[in-house]
Design a protein that fits this description.
heterodimer; A: alpha/beta; TIM Barrel; two-stranded antiparallel ribbon; 54% helix; B: 244 residues; three-stranded antiparallel β-sheet
């Protein structure tokens, strides 16, 4: 690979090899552990739905009951489906209700025939959930065929976040009519730390709207209407992050969401979620996304909001390579990798725009078949909305010059207010002007050989390889514990959600993982 | 000179610019409506320089015009914060230079309150409103105990960590739970540790009256809209003294 930056093919190969070496032990860990959320996702796919009168989902009640009796190490599928047979219960939600009332005891059957029967029943039930996901994916393919993809790249990605799903819907539809190709519904602050998925349509959130199955369904239906109206398939994004990653991934597949935020380390670094919990949950959630045809968005932009965007540029590359490795291992294809990066260099720094171009092009050249998610400036948005609009214009220009796949529309009122109607309109006007005036500029933009941009890109790649060498020697878990990424120290034996992790027993059985890995 | 007017390009011209949206489609009447608003706001004459319809039912306007209001700078009243607001860099520098060790903070939601929104906004790196939380400060060592922490656990952790400050968040206010929990917390710390050894006690939440600190037995109360930087600045001010 030489491309526009003349990157050394050997160095690129070395970077990938090191990423795999660093990631491998984490994958092994993920393959030998399960979590409460993985098990709840299995039961959701098997058909458990709804919540008790306190709003605690029946899947939580059921997994808690199984865990209290036999632990998590066997997987919940066999104890649950054995109990169904023993109790003569047909509906797994009804079993959850009985278990919550304390009238069912769970155990792993001693007789081999009983185990086989339970495994078979669990496989049948979860196959039903996976078939729904497959149908949703086919539905998306059909709609894209009928209505078409956006006419231009990058796709224009806009955020709505009122806290009230019924307010979000008209805002999302208006945004789509104004040119948005992808709508993201930001989640309520704090949802990532809830160890359950709230139920039903919600009208109250803190700086965002709760991710629930019903909210997913309502928004997808509204965007289907507007897709029909516009003759363009409008995609929907939400967040598979936090403590319920696997369940949210399952719900996203069931309700035909199109993109999901899913980063390998975000929860660990920025939410202090236990590293092992995160990696186990992440692998399962990515396997589900792979099956559902969902494009993941990774969160490298976040490193640059905490660390300096020039000094830490190589940590973005390292994280992208790790995210790519984990994603491929989980069965995601290149077209599903919306690897993240951001325009966050201090605009007062001389040649800041050339540095941005170097970093953005490096990501483009390293991952030629990934859509890449290009994130707007936030850290250096000051409240000076005029300067902010100019900065967003340069961000848009860098995006089109370097062929980014998904462009999150920057708001000049970033850090001031949640976007007003007019802010969004001005921001979209900015994007349209740049894409209209310079949409094909990436064809002409070839940095001078040996010039500033090429040299900077080479430097960042070299630094990334250096850091990967350190991580691969020291192991990724230790690197995270030592504060290598985004300056936070996160040891593997600390953090939220650790008590929801269990090592597989020898007879661990998970029909969903088996089906997803068999399909790869 | 204490009497001033806005400045466009000539001293005393009183020129200002204004932008806003009205919930009507763009036509002559809409432009008239925009000018009427500007006029009622005191712009005279007002010039409509830009109008653009957004979607079906909204129009965005930019208006330039003259206002006749006078501003007396001698009569400006400002509520002064009793501690200086520092940047993250300055805060780290003060701790490093004057405290010469990391400043230790323990945070929690106590009682039955499961709303970690507040404590997470202040402590998590993610932060709030574009500001990083206290975990982001290199010179601070932060323990976030999360939700539903019992008061004895909190006191024990504060002691084990040798906390310089304890931050407690309370969102739920049913039957004054936030006040009772806070009193129980401050009493427990008074009982467990002598005055000189006690960490700085801080509570925060949207429904607290910031003037009730003494009554509740804490050193400081932070209300709605508090950002991590304000809390960090206060910690440095209260624990280390005047900033460098």
């Amino acid at each position: 690979m030489s491309g526009k930056l003349g990157l050394d093919a050997g160095t690129v190969r070395r970077a990938r090899t090191l990423a795999a070496k660093a990631g491998r032990p984490v994958v092994d860990l993920a393959r030998s552990h399960t979590t409460v959320s993985v098990e709840r996702a299995v039961l959701r796919l098997a058909g458990v739905h709804g919540a008790d009168s306190d709003g605690i989902p029946w899947v939580n009640r059921l997994v808690d009951a199984v865990r209290a009796d036999v632990g998590l190490g066997h997987g919940v599928a066999v104890p649950v489906f054995h109990a169904m047979a023993a109790e003569g219960v047909e509906d797994v939600t009804v079993l959850a209700q009985k278990a919550a009332a304390g009238s069912v005891r769970f155990h792993v059957p001693a007789k081999k025939a009983d185990v086989t029967a339970a495994r078979r029943a669990a496989t049948r039930a979860t196959r039903h959930g996976l078939t729904t996901i497959d149908r949703r994916r086919a539905e998306r393919d059909r709609m894209i065929k009928r209505y078409g993809d956006p006419a231009q790249r990058p796709w224009i990605y806009l955020i709505v976040a009122t806290g009230d799903i019924y307010e979000d819907i008209p805002q999302a539809q208006a945004a789509a009519r104004a040119g948005a190709d992808v709508i993201a519904v930001i989640r309520s602050t704090g949802q990532s730390l809830l160890d359950y998925v709230p139920e039903g349509a919600t009208r109250e959130g803190f700086a965002g709207t709760y991710a629930t199955q019903e909210n997913f369904r309502l928004m997808r239906a509204a965007l289907d209407d507007v897709s029909r109206e516009l003759g363009r398939y409008v995609r929907l994004t939400n967040y598979a992050s936090g403590l319920c990653m696997p369940e949210i991934a399952a719900l996203a597949g069931l309700e035909r969401l199109d993109m999901m935020l899913n980063d390998s380390m975000y929860g660990i670094l920025f939410r202090d979620i236990n590293p092992i919990r995160t990696f186990v949950d992440q692998r399962f959630s990515r396997q589900v996304h792979a099956r559902a045809g969902i494009i993941i968005n990774t969160g490298e932009d976040n490193y640059l909001t905490t660390a300096d965007a020039v000094e830490a540029a190589h940590t973005v590359t390292v994280s992208q390579l790790l995210n790519e490795y984990f994603a491929h291992e989980a069965g995601l294809a290149d077209w599903q990798l919306g690897l993240g990066h951001a325009f966050e260099i201090n605009p007062d720094l001389p040649e800041s725009f050339r540095l941005e171009l170097a970093h953005a092009l490096l990501a483009r050249e390293l991952f030629p078949d990934a859509p890449l998610k290009w994130m707007p400036p936030t850290k250096h948005m000051t409240g000076d909305v005029f300067r902010g609009n100019l900065l967003d214009g340069f961000f848009n220009l860098a995006g089109t010059m370097t062929g980014q796949g998904i462009l999150l529309v920057g708001m000049m009122t970033e850090a001031v207010v949640t976007p007003w109607l007019s802010d969004r309109d001005i921001a979209l006007q900015n994007v349209r002007y740049v894409l209209g005036a310079a949409g094909g500029l990436h064809e002409d933009f070839v940095p001078a050989p040996g010039g500033f941009i090429q040299r900077r890109a080479h430097q960042v790649l070299d630094e990334a390889v250096e850091l990967l060498e350190k991580i691969a020697d020291d192991t990724l878990l230790n690197a995270i514990a030592d504060g290598t990424f985004g300056i936070m120290k996160r040891p593997a034996d600390r953090g939220k959600g650790l008590d929801g992790v269990a090592e597989h027993d020898e007879d661990y059985f998970n029909p969903v993982t088996i089906a997803l890995e068999g399909a790869q | 000179m204490s009497i001033i007017r806005p400045y466009g390009d000539t001293t005393g011209d009183g020129m200002v610019q204004l932008s806003f949206t009205l919930p009507i489609p763009h036509d002559k009447r809409a432009e008239g409506a925009a000018l009427q608003l500007a006029s009622k706001m005191g712009m005279d004459p007002a010039m409509l320089v830009h109008a653009k319809q957004m979607g079906e039912a909204f129009t965005f306007f930019v208006v330039y015009g003259r206002v006749h209001h006078l501003v007396d700078t001698d009569k400006v009243q400002v509520v002064e914060r009793d501690f200086p607001l520092l940047s993250a860099k300055e805060i780290n520098a003060v701790i490093k230079q004057r405290l010469r060790r990391r400043l230790t903070v323990v945070g929690a939601c106590i009682g039955t309150d499961a709303h970690t929104v507040g404590i997470d906004a202040i402590l998590n790196v993610k932060g709030i409103a574009g500001e990083k939380g206290l975990e982001y400060y290199r010179e601070m060592s932060v323990t976030n105990m999360g939700a539903q922490v019992s008061v004895p656990d909190l006191v024990e952790t504060a002691r084990a960590q040798k906390a310089d400050a304890v931050l407690v968040s309370q969102v739920v206010t049913q039957r004054d739970a936030h006040l009772q929990n806070t009193r129980a917390m401050s009493a427990a710390f008074r009982e467990a540790m002598p005055a000189g050894k006690r960490p700085l006690l801080i509570v925060g939440g949207p429904r607290f009256d910031e003037l009730m600190a003494g009554e509740l037995g804490v050193d400081r109360i932070f209300g709605r809209g508090t950002t991590p930087r304000e809390v960090a600045s206060y910690l440095v001010h209260a624990l280390i003294g005047a900033a460098a």
